[in-house]
Please model this.
Amino acid sequence: MSNADAFDPRDGLYADLREFVHVHGTCGEMRATSCRASIGVHLGVFCSCGGRFDGWLSVMAATALHLYTAIPSG
Model:
């Protein structure tokens, strides 16, 4: 399997987050939060217009990306 075909656990989350930022990029300020839970890592982005992005990475995906131990438990 080539690297181009390798599974990247961020694929869906990254695409969804990019879309959120694209849609809300001109609204004003965005704030991001993250927390580690027993089921994985939560990423939240809040836009000043009231828009909200909620995304999750599983423990396995977060561990592969070295995020699970980098983000304090919530």
